[in-house]
Amino acid sequence: MERNLRSLASVCKLPTYLMCLFLIAVLCLHTAEFASTEPLDPDLVIYFDYEEFKGDTVIEKSGRGYDGEINGKVTQSDDGKFGKAAEFASTSFLDLDGVNIADDDIPTEGMSVVAWINVENVTDMAIFNARAGDGTWLVHPEARGDGNYRWLNRGPNPNRTIFDIRAGNNKAKEWIHYAGTYSRADAKAVLYINGKNVGEEAARLDTPIAGDWDQGARVGYNIDNNRPFAGLMDDLNVWKRGLTEEEVNMIMNDGVEAFLAVEARGKLATTWGKLKASK
Prior knowledge:
By secondary structure, the chain is α+β, with helices and mostly antiparallel strands. It folds into 2 domains: 36 residues; 218 residues, Jelly Rolls. Helices cover 22% and strands 33% of the residues. It has 4 helices and 19 strands. The strands form 3 sheets. Strands 1, 5, 6, 8, 15, 16, 17 and 19 form an 8-stranded antiparallel beta sheet that branches. A 7-stranded antiparallel beta sheet has the order 2-3-4-7-18-10-11, with no helix packed on it. β15 and β16 form a beta hairpin. The protein is globular, with a radius of gyration of 21 Å.
């Protein structure tokens, strides 16, 4: 702290906009020291990079603390797309205790589910699943046994399907990047495989996505113990907004944390521009 104060004194003659940027930087450094559990991004709800296993738990990295409880056999593999990955034995999953997900963290106005997957065979496999208290299966990001991939959201009350995309070419024993995105404001859902738009659909209904996960949320297995994921999974991230094609590709190529760093630099550049304009 003393070093920072001396630095502050040494730059006190800087122009106003430079002084403001300096103060912002100092504040960010000290905020990081005392608030390391702050969310990485306001829209990033769940993030498993699978780099940290602790006993029967996989540590969740969004900053929200939604660690996954291992059920069955989910082990850490050195063969990840970025560093390590999780290897799921069939019928094994991570339990996210959906009823205790904060209301503000439930995606309702948009949703994106993104992950690298390397499945053992071509059959129905759930990447992530959540079910509302009224029985609504609100999301289905899947590799399918009929040879394609699936991306679906539903609104509250059972069977109110907002969109249901089935597209792409499901392949086993190779890394595939899956990204399903949806924005209610744009009334559009898109499924990207390996960064390419393989299917899109206009929203069938103008309704929010079902607003709770009270019957559960899991990685790798449906709530009713169907569609077990078997194989490797890396960099699973769930957002409460629809990512753009550019954002999907940045995450696919560089990973979530690199994407967030670029995003942060963009926000800083915008702030810089506003400060210079007001000088």
